[in-house]
Specification:
mainly alpha, two-stranded parallel sheet, 8 helices, 48% helix
Length: 197
């Protein structure tokens, strides 16, 4: 199997090669259990999570319809039900996952994706959720600042001045994006207000 993994020429093969997908699907949960148990045995004072995109899998097949149109072999529900995993995580890159779809379709997907995972984290998995990776790349064809600001009304990712060498298209440098900076300030003020409720 290792030879097969090493011979895959493109990262997309990981998502499309049936042998690799099957191997991943059949072994990833056991690997998560093994590693999580080991980590907790040497450090039970820190939180631990899986860090996957959040694709639904075989434990609740009806949930697969929420995925962005393809399966990768992971299982949001079963991977996060592992006792040693302390919180759930999801990622979202609708511009990549739903390339060719318009902004409103991508935003509708985001609403379903977030709502479904938050609900499942609260009611099935019974653990808190962190939306840990997300973005709309400034390198995508058809990118617009207003579309990104619309997306970031709910979520955002900030990079400090001077970190441009790490530019992946998903970063926001506040000094270079005043409308986005204003939006983040508004969201931050809402969070501050929650602290005083």
């Amino acid at each position: 199997m290792l030879v097969l993994l090493l011979t895959l020429m493109m990262i997309s093969d990981f998502y499309t090669n049936e042998v690799v997908k099957g191997y991943y699907k059949n072994h990833v949960k056991d690997w998560i259990q093994e590693v999580a148990s080991f980590v907790k045995s040497i450090d039970s004072n820190h939180f631990l999570t899986v860090g996957m995109e959040g694709f639904y899998g075989g434990s609740m097949p009806e949930k697969k319809a929420i995925n962005p149109g393809y399966q990768v072999g992971t299982d949001f529900i079963s991977n996060h039900l592992i006792k040693e995993i302390d919180f759930t995580t999801i990622h979202a890159y609708p511009d990549i996952w739903l390339s060719g779809k318009d902004n409103s379709s991508q935003m509708a997907f985001m609403q379903r994706w977030l709502t479904s995972h938050l609900t499942d984290s609260e009611t099935i998995i019974k653990k808190p959720m962190i939306f840990s990776e997300f973005g709309r790349s400034s390198k995508d064809p058809g990118y617009s600042l207003s579309a990104r600001d619309s997306f970031l009304n709910a979520v955002w990712q900030v990079m400090a001045d001077g970190m441009q060498s790490y530019d992946d298209g998903y970063e926001i440098v506040l000094s270079q994006n005043p409308s986005t900076s204003s939006l983040i300030t508004q969201q931050s003020n809402k969070m501050i207000a929650l602290d005083h409720v």
